[in-house]
Amino acid sequence: MGLDTGILSTATDLAFFASEVFAGDFFATETVSLFTNEVYLNNGEGSNRSFGWEIFYDDNGSVSYFGHGGLTNGAVAELRYYPEEKLAFALITNYNVWLTDKAPQYQELYHRRFPELFGVSGFTTPLGVE
Prior knowledge:
By secondary structure, the protein is of the alpha+beta class. It has one domain. The protein contains three helices and four strands; from the N terminus they run ααββββα. Strands 1-2-3-4 form a four-stranded antiparallel β-sheet, covered by helices on one side.
């Protein structure tokens, strides 16, 4: 099995995993810092990435949430963890969202409606999402 083969999981298990990564006691403190501290490029610029996670900041420069997602032909998965709220949620769909006219609805659902539903504050829009 190669590193690009993915993980078979449920949305519930993914959300539980994110909760354990960021708020659980499974990982050592040193390991958690790899997940929560931004990696800087050789030129000193921030990458908005940590070890395995994308970091999204609010307008004040504080971490709004950590996210990880992926897609392949016929499937999309997104995972977020909001440290301030200690909230994790995941969305998995077996649909070619990006190859149809449904991408705007998916963006609306995942990037706006879900945060509103869970009452998450400090929401930021990922790069490339209007």
